Amino acid sequence: MKTRALVYVRKSMVKNRRDEISPERQRANCIGAAKAHGWTVTEDDIYEDAEGHRSGRSEEHRPAWRALKTRIKSDPTVAAVIVNSLDRGSRSPKDFFNFLDLVQAREVEIVSVTEQFDTSTAIGRAFLAILMVIASLESDLASERTSSTIDYLKSQGIHWGFTPYGYERDEDNILSANDDSRVVVRCCELYAQGGISYLKIARKLNAEGYRWRDRQGKAAPFTRDAVRSILSNILVYAGWVPVGRGKDMQINDEAKTIAELVLVTDAVEGQHQPIISDELADEVLAVRHQRKALGVRRDDHVYLLTPILHCSVCGKPLRGKVGRRSGYTYCHRTRGKACDCADGTFDAADLEREVVQGLDLKLPAVTVAGMKRLVESRIRSRPENAVIQEKIDALEKKRERLRELYLMGEYAKDQYLAVRSDIVREVQALERERSGPEYPLESALASLSKLTDVLKSGSRDRKKKMLGMLFENVSIDGEGTIKEVELRKWARPLFADLFIVNGDHKCPQGNSNPCRRLERAVS
Predict the structure, then answer these.
(1) How many CB atoms lie within 10 A of CB 303?
(2) Per-residue pLDDT reduced to its tens digit, 251-277
(3) Structure pTM?
(4) Fewer Cβ within 10 Å of end Cβ, the chain: N or C?
């Protein structure tokens, strides 16, 4: 039985940042309409897209609207969908007509508190279509009027958009400096010194007692993103307003001085007072370009230890990155507060050299022979193979005795060959019953030889591939020292036997030696 009504609420954050009908008021109006019709509405029946700008022109950024449509398809108890007004449901005639087909197929009514219509009649559906076209037209016209107004205000030097940190707006919507303006100056001065990262600037500002204020005006500690936000608005802080899009306020890579940035962004002199001087703005831009030049990434560089390199503290993988002063480095993929090492970078060449230097594994013939003897001895010593080996040894002695009797003339040649063939077949059958080695020794030794050749003369792509085939994980601490290595499953028994045969010959004392770490990894 259809007894439930679904309520949809959408907050439309228009460009003047005011919404005439709040979500609370929409919700109350819709619940009142449901009670008037005798429908039940619970908290689970209310769908809200009320965070940020949820435009009715598309369904892409409206998860609650999509969830409501899914509920209609799966819940046979839904009797109606209630909205405060049509434009809250959709401003797109195409999307709304598709929605209308859905509710008609499920025999669900649409109720609008403002327009007051019933979709169960033909006139009601026609009236709905006319209202949707008018709503779409009104939305397009309003958008055009707003865009025209914004362009005019910018051309008059009035900043439009979210109020930058360090400013507040007066009754005429003009920016005026507040107490946080001194923090903007301090931030720019620190950056202009050069060699200081966004994170270090944020920490220094926090240590000096300054606080960042977000778009809601809440105080919070400075972060690298907060520092980046200040430095990217240099144009506004220097007293200018770009006429183009809001993203044009960001520092343009082509401009090396504030005068060039004004020219590139078609900026006009703002009606607000600047917080920083042109000289300080030029210094910030100069440092910016120096950092950009140092941090140019080469797409063709291959990081050998990605993705096997991990942090020994938090366990997260490290990624390759171009350092601004130290060349190619490894750093944390995500910078989390849970790891004390998350803000460090580690020289890629040093780490890669330390991993590779212990992998000169071109084994001499005596070592290969020793490993084969070790594997064969291990096979023989297994309890399940002991009885089989006794039978094989007995058959071998029988074959030797048979040969002696043949040489003495006790057996004819045909008789000797027939008996010997029977003995050989018995031996082969018993050898097949024996359990073999833990790993294919011959192919594993061939893989080691190939690995050594590639690490000596192969391309970086092949080196990376071979290291990934050998290592499961390489862990480093906060000082960039390799702490542990973990071999792939196939390589563990091979290296264990290699260390048994060689002893300490290839493994000098000291835990920092790569070969010693491999020995610990398989022990």
Answers:
(1) 19
(2) 455 677 888 888 877 788 888 889 999
(3) 0.42
(4) N
Q: Is the peptide bond before 76 cis (omega within 30 degrees of 0)?
A: no
Helix ranges, 381-523 (H): 383-407, 413-433, 441-457, 460-470, 492-502, 514-522
Specify the CATH number for the domain of residue 282. Answer: 3.90.1750.20
Domain that holds residue 112: 4-147
Q: What is the pLDDT of residues 454-485, one digit of tens each?
A: 888 888 888 898 888 888 898 888 888 888 88
Phi, psi dihedral angles at 130 (to 5 degrees): -65, -40
Is residue 22 domain-shared with residue 120, that is, in the same domain? yes
The answer to whether residues 80 and 51 touch, using CB atoms and an 8 Å cutoff, is no
Say whether both 393 and 514 belong to one domain: no
Residues 88 and 185 in one domain: no
Buried b (16+ CB within 10 A) or exposed e, 441-480: beebbebbeebbebbeeeeeeebbebbeebbebbbbbeeb
304/366 same-domain check: yes
Positive or negative, the CA dihedral 432, 437, 442, 443 is positive
398, 377: one domain: no
Residue 356, classified by CB atoms within 10 Å of its CB into exposed (0-12), middle (13-18) or buried (19+), is middle
Tokens at 84, concatenated: 């405060």
